[in-house]
Amino acid sequence: MKFMLKNHFNSNQWRIFTALILTGLLSVASSLTLVKDATGASVNLSLERSNEVLKDNVKTNRLPRPVVNAVLRDLASRQGIFSSQLQIIDYNQQTWRNGCLELPQPDEICTQALVPGWRIVVSNGKQNWIYHTNNNGRSLRLASANTPSENLPGKLPTSVKNSVLRAASRRLQKPISQLTIIQAQQQTWRDSCLELANADEFCTQALVQGWRVIVDAVDQTLVYHTNQTGSALRLNQNANQNTLAPVKIPVSELPPPLDRDIVFRQISSGGITGRTYETVLLKDGLLIRVRIGDANDSERSVRRVSVQQVQQFVRSLERSQFSKFQNLSYPAPSGSADYITYTLTSQQGTVQYNDISQNNLPKNLQTAVKAWNQIVASAK
To answer: Please, which domain of life does this record's source organism belong to (predicted)?
Structure first.
Protein backbone atom coordinates (compact mmCIF):
# COMPACT_ATOMS: atom_id res chain seq x y z
CA MET A 1 0.00 0.00 0.00
CA LYS A 2 2.79 2.45 0.85
CA PHE A 3 4.51 1.74 -2.50
CA MET A 4 1.30 2.34 -4.46
CA LEU A 5 0.61 5.63 -2.65
CA LYS A 6 4.06 6.93 -3.53
CA ASN A 7 3.49 6.14 -7.22
CA HIS A 8 -0.04 7.57 -7.57
CA PHE A 9 0.08 10.68 -5.39
CA ASN A 10 2.26 13.71 -5.68
CA SER A 11 3.61 15.33 -2.56
CA ASN A 12 0.74 17.82 -2.25
CA GLN A 13 -1.87 15.12 -2.60
CA TRP A 14 0.02 13.08 -0.03
CA ARG A 15 -0.19 15.95 2.51
CA ILE A 16 -3.94 16.28 1.92
CA PHE A 17 -4.43 12.55 2.34
CA THR A 18 -2.36 12.51 5.55
CA ALA A 19 -4.38 15.42 6.96
CA LEU A 20 -7.61 13.55 6.30
CA ILE A 21 -6.30 10.47 8.11
CA LEU A 22 -5.19 12.53 11.12
CA THR A 23 -8.54 14.30 11.21
CA GLY A 24 -10.26 10.94 11.28
CA LEU A 25 -8.07 9.73 14.12
CA LEU A 26 -8.73 12.86 16.14
CA SER A 27 -12.44 12.41 15.57
CA VAL A 28 -12.29 8.84 16.84
CA ALA A 29 -10.24 9.90 19.89
CA SER A 30 -12.74 12.66 20.61
CA SER A 31 -15.58 10.16 20.44
CA LEU A 32 -13.77 7.86 22.81
CA THR A 33 -13.21 10.75 25.23
CA LEU A 34 -16.91 11.57 25.13
CA VAL A 35 -17.77 7.95 25.82
CA LYS A 36 -15.28 7.90 28.72
CA ASP A 37 -16.70 11.11 30.18
CA ALA A 38 -20.23 9.81 29.82
CA THR A 39 -19.24 6.56 31.52
CA GLY A 40 -17.58 8.45 34.38
CA ALA A 41 -20.67 10.59 34.82
CA SER A 42 -22.81 7.47 34.90
CA VAL A 43 -20.60 5.89 37.59
CA ASN A 44 -20.64 9.03 39.72
CA LEU A 45 -24.41 9.26 39.38
CA SER A 46 -24.75 5.63 40.43
CA LEU A 47 -22.61 6.25 43.52
CA GLU A 48 -24.64 9.30 44.47
CA ARG A 49 -27.85 7.40 44.04
CA SER A 50 -26.43 4.53 46.07
CA ASN A 51 -25.70 6.90 48.93
CA GLU A 52 -29.19 8.36 48.71
CA VAL A 53 -30.71 4.89 48.79
CA LEU A 54 -28.60 4.07 51.84
CA LYS A 55 -29.81 7.20 53.60
CA ASP A 56 -33.42 6.36 52.74
CA ASN A 57 -32.99 2.94 54.32
CA VAL A 58 -31.69 4.44 57.55
CA LYS A 59 -34.05 5.46 60.32
CA THR A 60 -34.55 9.12 61.08
CA ASN A 61 -31.59 10.64 62.91
CA ARG A 62 -29.44 7.56 62.29
CA LEU A 63 -25.95 8.43 61.16
CA PRO A 64 -25.52 7.53 57.44
CA ARG A 65 -22.88 4.92 56.66
CA PRO A 66 -20.90 7.15 54.22
CA VAL A 67 -20.50 9.73 56.99
CA VAL A 68 -19.27 7.08 59.44
CA ASN A 69 -16.73 5.81 56.90
CA ALA A 70 -15.46 9.30 56.04
CA VAL A 71 -14.96 10.37 59.65
CA LEU A 72 -13.27 7.15 60.81
CA ARG A 73 -10.97 7.07 57.77
CA ASP A 74 -9.95 10.69 58.30
CA LEU A 75 -9.19 10.30 62.01
CA ALA A 76 -7.44 6.94 61.57
CA SER A 77 -5.21 8.57 58.95
CA ARG A 78 -4.46 11.55 61.19
CA GLN A 79 -3.63 9.37 64.20
CA GLY A 80 -1.86 6.59 62.31
CA ILE A 81 -4.09 3.89 63.79
CA PHE A 82 -6.66 1.38 62.58
CA SER A 83 -10.24 2.63 62.28
CA SER A 84 -11.29 -0.44 64.28
CA GLN A 85 -9.66 1.23 67.31
CA LEU A 86 -12.12 4.11 67.06
CA GLN A 87 -15.79 4.32 67.83
CA ILE A 88 -18.45 6.99 67.44
CA ILE A 89 -19.83 7.65 70.91
CA ASP A 90 -22.24 10.47 70.10
CA TYR A 91 -23.73 12.28 67.12
CA ASN A 92 -26.59 14.59 66.25
CA GLN A 93 -27.90 16.42 63.22
CA GLN A 94 -26.90 20.04 62.72
CA THR A 95 -27.51 22.84 60.25
CA TRP A 96 -24.23 24.69 59.84
CA ARG A 97 -24.45 28.40 59.07
CA ASN A 98 -21.81 28.48 56.33
CA GLY A 99 -19.92 26.40 53.81
CA CYS A 100 -16.99 26.02 56.22
CA LEU A 101 -19.24 24.05 58.61
CA GLU A 102 -18.64 26.85 61.14
CA LEU A 103 -14.95 25.93 61.27
CA PRO A 104 -13.20 28.43 58.96
CA GLN A 105 -9.46 28.47 58.51
CA PRO A 106 -7.57 31.77 59.01
CA ASP A 107 -8.42 34.21 56.18
CA GLU A 108 -10.77 31.65 54.61
CA ILE A 109 -13.88 32.98 52.88
CA CYS A 110 -16.93 30.81 53.59
CA THR A 111 -20.10 30.72 51.51
CA GLN A 112 -22.98 32.06 53.58
CA ALA A 113 -25.41 29.22 53.05
CA LEU A 114 -27.05 26.79 55.45
CA VAL A 115 -25.47 23.31 55.25
CA PRO A 116 -27.38 20.35 56.75
CA GLY A 117 -25.01 17.90 58.37
CA TRP A 118 -23.77 16.19 61.52
CA ARG A 119 -21.77 16.84 64.67
CA ILE A 120 -19.91 13.64 65.59
CA VAL A 121 -17.86 12.65 68.64
CA VAL A 122 -15.26 9.91 68.07
CA SER A 123 -13.30 8.17 70.83
CA ASN A 124 -10.43 5.75 71.18
CA GLY A 125 -11.26 5.12 74.84
CA LYS A 126 -8.77 7.71 76.09
CA GLN A 127 -9.47 10.81 74.04
CA ASN A 128 -12.34 12.26 72.06
CA TRP A 129 -12.43 14.14 68.77
CA ILE A 130 -15.30 16.26 67.45
CA TYR A 131 -16.13 16.47 63.73
CA HIS A 132 -18.44 18.69 61.71
CA THR A 133 -19.66 17.15 58.43
CA ASN A 134 -22.20 17.78 55.72
CA ASN A 135 -25.05 15.33 55.08
CA ASN A 136 -23.05 12.72 53.16
CA GLY A 137 -19.58 13.06 54.70
CA ARG A 138 -17.93 14.43 51.56
CA SER A 139 -17.19 17.62 53.43
CA LEU A 140 -15.86 17.31 56.96
CA ARG A 141 -13.73 19.26 59.40
CA LEU A 142 -12.08 18.37 62.69
CA ALA A 143 -13.47 20.72 65.30
CA SER A 144 -11.32 19.70 68.26
CA ALA A 145 -8.55 17.17 68.73
CA ASN A 146 -7.19 15.27 71.71
CA THR A 147 -10.00 16.37 74.00
CA PRO A 148 -9.82 14.27 77.20
CA SER A 149 -13.08 12.42 77.72
CA GLU A 150 -13.60 13.71 81.22
CA ASN A 151 -13.42 17.34 80.07
CA LEU A 152 -16.29 17.17 77.60
CA PRO A 153 -18.92 18.34 80.12
CA GLY A 154 -16.47 20.84 81.61
CA LYS A 155 -18.30 23.97 80.44
CA LEU A 156 -21.69 22.77 81.59
CA PRO A 157 -23.12 25.30 84.11
CA THR A 158 -23.49 23.92 87.62
CA SER A 159 -27.20 24.78 87.64
CA VAL A 160 -27.77 22.67 84.53
CA LYS A 161 -25.68 19.80 85.87
CA ASN A 162 -27.55 19.71 89.17
CA SER A 163 -30.94 19.96 87.49
CA VAL A 164 -30.21 17.10 85.09
CA LEU A 165 -28.75 14.82 87.76
CA ARG A 166 -31.71 15.39 90.06
CA ALA A 167 -34.14 14.59 87.26
CA ALA A 168 -32.23 11.45 86.29
CA SER A 169 -32.01 10.35 89.93
CA ARG A 170 -35.78 10.65 90.35
CA ARG A 171 -36.50 8.80 87.12
CA LEU A 172 -34.10 5.91 87.72
CA GLN A 173 -34.57 5.75 91.48
CA LYS A 174 -30.82 5.84 91.92
CA PRO A 175 -28.63 8.11 94.05
CA ILE A 176 -26.81 10.89 92.21
CA SER A 177 -23.50 9.33 93.22
CA GLN A 178 -24.21 6.48 90.78
CA LEU A 179 -24.81 8.83 87.84
CA THR A 180 -22.25 10.43 85.54
CA ILE A 181 -22.62 13.10 82.88
CA ILE A 182 -20.66 11.75 79.94
CA GLN A 183 -21.61 14.29 77.24
CA ALA A 184 -22.70 17.94 77.37
CA GLN A 185 -23.18 19.87 74.17
CA GLN A 186 -24.48 23.39 73.61
CA GLN A 187 -27.58 23.58 71.42
CA THR A 188 -29.97 26.13 70.01
CA TRP A 189 -33.45 24.64 70.23
CA ARG A 190 -36.01 25.82 67.69
CA ASP A 191 -38.94 26.18 70.08
CA SER A 192 -39.85 26.66 73.71
CA CYS A 193 -40.50 22.92 74.07
CA LEU A 194 -36.81 22.26 73.41
CA GLU A 195 -37.85 20.29 70.30
CA LEU A 196 -39.57 17.69 72.50
CA ALA A 197 -43.22 18.73 72.34
CA ASN A 198 -45.91 16.49 73.77
CA ALA A 199 -48.99 15.60 71.74
CA ASP A 200 -51.26 18.64 71.19
CA GLU A 201 -48.82 20.87 73.09
CA PHE A 202 -48.39 24.44 71.85
CA CYS A 203 -44.76 25.56 71.61
CA THR A 204 -43.57 29.10 71.06
CA GLN A 205 -41.55 29.26 67.85
CA ALA A 206 -38.51 31.02 69.26
CA LEU A 207 -34.86 30.04 69.46
CA VAL A 208 -33.82 28.80 72.92
CA GLN A 209 -30.15 28.55 73.88
CA GLY A 210 -29.45 25.46 75.93
CA TRP A 211 -27.77 22.09 76.29
CA ARG A 212 -28.04 18.46 75.24
CA VAL A 213 -26.83 16.34 78.16
CA ILE A 214 -26.25 12.59 78.34
CA VAL A 215 -26.31 10.88 81.73
CA ASP A 216 -24.77 7.45 82.20
CA ALA A 217 -26.24 5.11 84.81
CA VAL A 218 -24.10 1.98 84.13
CA ASP A 219 -26.98 -0.05 82.67
CA GLN A 220 -28.53 2.71 80.55
CA THR A 221 -28.19 6.32 79.41
CA LEU A 222 -30.61 9.22 79.52
CA VAL A 223 -30.59 12.17 77.12
CA TYR A 224 -31.90 15.53 78.32
CA HIS A 225 -32.62 18.81 76.53
CA THR A 226 -32.36 21.90 78.73
CA ASN A 227 -32.33 25.67 78.51
CA GLN A 228 -29.27 27.73 79.47
CA THR A 229 -29.81 27.51 83.22
CA GLY A 230 -31.47 24.13 83.60
CA SER A 231 -34.72 25.66 84.84
CA ALA A 232 -36.41 23.99 81.87
CA LEU A 233 -35.49 20.45 80.82
CA ARG A 234 -37.06 17.54 79.02
CA LEU A 235 -36.15 13.89 78.62
CA ASN A 236 -35.58 12.76 75.02
CA GLN A 237 -37.53 9.52 75.11
CA ASN A 238 -36.69 8.57 71.52
CA ALA A 239 -32.96 8.73 72.23
CA ASN A 240 -33.39 6.28 75.11
CA GLN A 241 -35.49 3.69 73.30
CA ASN A 242 -33.08 2.56 70.65
CA THR A 243 -31.72 -0.80 71.78
CA LEU A 244 -31.64 -3.63 69.24
CA ALA A 245 -33.37 -6.99 69.37
CA PRO A 246 -30.77 -9.78 69.18
CA VAL A 247 -31.00 -13.05 67.28
CA LYS A 248 -29.39 -16.35 68.17
CA ILE A 249 -26.18 -17.20 66.29
CA PRO A 250 -26.58 -20.64 64.63
CA VAL A 251 -24.25 -23.20 66.15
CA SER A 252 -22.74 -23.85 62.73
CA GLU A 253 -21.67 -20.19 62.49
CA LEU A 254 -20.03 -19.93 65.90
CA PRO A 255 -16.24 -19.48 65.89
CA PRO A 256 -14.09 -22.08 67.67
CA PRO A 257 -13.78 -21.70 71.46
CA LEU A 258 -10.72 -20.03 72.94
CA ASP A 259 -7.61 -21.85 74.05
CA ARG A 260 -7.11 -21.61 77.78
CA ASP A 261 -4.24 -19.12 77.41
CA ILE A 262 -6.43 -16.67 75.48
CA VAL A 263 -8.57 -14.20 77.42
CA PHE A 264 -10.47 -12.58 74.57
CA ARG A 265 -10.73 -12.57 70.78
CA GLN A 266 -12.16 -10.15 68.24
CA ILE A 267 -12.81 -11.05 64.60
CA SER A 268 -13.67 -8.10 62.36
CA SER A 269 -14.83 -8.60 58.80
CA GLY A 270 -16.49 -6.68 55.99
CA GLY A 271 -16.33 -2.94 55.43
CA ILE A 272 -15.15 -1.38 52.19
CA THR A 273 -12.04 -3.59 51.91
CA GLY A 274 -13.87 -6.82 52.78
CA ARG A 275 -10.87 -8.06 54.76
CA THR A 276 -11.02 -10.12 57.95
CA TYR A 277 -8.78 -9.52 60.96
CA GLU A 278 -8.37 -11.54 64.15
CA THR A 279 -7.09 -9.96 67.37
CA VAL A 280 -6.44 -12.05 70.48
CA LEU A 281 -5.48 -11.06 74.02
CA LEU A 282 -3.39 -13.56 75.97
CA LYS A 283 -3.22 -13.91 79.74
CA ASP A 284 0.37 -12.63 79.77
CA GLY A 285 -0.70 -9.37 78.08
CA LEU A 286 0.31 -10.11 74.49
CA LEU A 287 -2.09 -8.63 71.93
CA ILE A 288 -1.70 -10.29 68.53
CA ARG A 289 -3.44 -9.10 65.38
CA VAL A 290 -3.35 -10.91 62.01
CA ARG A 291 -5.22 -10.71 58.73
CA ILE A 292 -7.00 -13.91 57.83
CA GLY A 293 -5.87 -15.11 54.41
CA ASP A 294 -2.58 -13.18 54.49
CA ALA A 295 -0.28 -15.92 53.16
CA ASN A 296 2.89 -13.97 53.94
CA ASP A 297 1.67 -12.93 57.39
CA SER A 298 2.81 -9.41 56.42
CA GLU A 299 0.17 -7.60 58.49
CA ARG A 300 0.84 -9.37 61.78
CA SER A 301 1.35 -7.05 64.74
CA VAL A 302 2.34 -8.05 68.25
CA ARG A 303 1.91 -5.58 71.09
CA ARG A 304 1.57 -5.83 74.84
CA VAL A 305 -0.43 -4.58 77.79
CA SER A 306 0.35 -5.19 81.43
CA VAL A 307 -0.98 -8.19 83.32
CA GLN A 308 -2.79 -5.73 85.60
CA GLN A 309 -4.63 -4.31 82.58
CA VAL A 310 -5.62 -7.81 81.53
CA GLN A 311 -7.02 -8.46 85.00
CA GLN A 312 -8.89 -5.15 84.98
CA PHE A 313 -10.36 -6.03 81.60
CA VAL A 314 -11.56 -9.40 82.87
CA ARG A 315 -13.23 -7.66 85.82
CA SER A 316 -14.88 -5.22 83.39
CA LEU A 317 -16.32 -8.16 81.46
CA GLU A 318 -17.68 -9.60 84.68
CA ARG A 319 -19.22 -6.29 85.79
CA SER A 320 -20.86 -5.80 82.41
CA GLN A 321 -22.22 -9.35 82.56
CA PHE A 322 -20.77 -10.12 79.17
CA SER A 323 -21.66 -13.79 79.54
CA LYS A 324 -25.40 -13.03 79.45
CA PHE A 325 -25.04 -12.08 75.77
CA GLN A 326 -23.73 -15.54 74.98
CA ASN A 327 -24.19 -16.58 71.33
CA LEU A 328 -26.32 -13.52 70.47
CA SER A 329 -26.04 -11.40 67.33
CA TYR A 330 -27.21 -7.79 66.93
CA PRO A 331 -27.75 -7.49 63.17
CA ALA A 332 -27.37 -4.43 60.95
CA PRO A 333 -30.50 -2.61 59.75
CA SER A 334 -32.07 -3.98 56.60
CA GLY A 335 -30.54 -2.47 53.47
CA SER A 336 -27.26 -1.50 55.12
CA ALA A 337 -24.02 -1.93 53.21
CA ASP A 338 -20.25 -1.77 53.75
CA TYR A 339 -20.54 -2.26 57.50
CA ILE A 340 -18.00 -4.08 59.66
CA THR A 341 -19.12 -7.08 61.68
CA TYR A 342 -17.37 -7.71 65.00
CA THR A 343 -17.43 -11.14 66.62
CA LEU A 344 -16.27 -11.05 70.25
CA THR A 345 -15.45 -14.22 72.15
CA SER A 346 -14.56 -14.69 75.81
CA GLN A 347 -14.14 -17.91 77.74
CA GLN A 348 -17.90 -17.71 78.48
CA GLY A 349 -19.21 -17.32 74.94
CA THR A 350 -19.55 -15.24 71.78
CA VAL A 351 -21.49 -12.10 70.81
CA GLN A 352 -21.71 -10.42 67.42
CA TYR A 353 -22.55 -6.84 66.40
CA ASN A 354 -21.70 -4.30 63.69
CA ASP A 355 -20.35 -0.76 63.62
CA ILE A 356 -23.61 0.70 62.28
CA SER A 357 -25.64 -0.49 65.28
CA GLN A 358 -22.94 -0.13 67.91
CA ASN A 359 -24.54 2.88 69.60
CA ASN A 360 -27.82 0.99 69.95
CA LEU A 361 -26.44 -2.04 71.78
CA PRO A 362 -27.56 -2.73 75.35
CA LYS A 363 -25.66 -0.51 77.74
CA ASN A 364 -23.85 -3.39 79.46
CA LEU A 365 -22.62 -4.70 76.13
CA GLN A 366 -21.47 -1.22 75.14
CA THR A 367 -19.48 -1.14 78.38
CA ALA A 368 -17.74 -4.40 77.47
CA VAL A 369 -16.99 -3.15 73.95
CA LYS A 370 -15.58 0.07 75.37
CA ALA A 371 -13.32 -1.86 77.77
CA TRP A 372 -12.00 -3.94 74.87
CA ASN A 373 -11.35 -0.88 72.71
CA GLN A 374 -9.44 0.68 75.59
CA ILE A 375 -7.24 -2.40 75.86
CA VAL A 376 -6.48 -2.31 72.13
CA ALA A 377 -5.78 1.43 72.17
CA SER A 378 -3.41 1.18 75.15
CA ALA A 379 -1.30 -1.67 73.78
CA LYS A 380 2.32 -0.80 72.95
So the answer is: Bacteria
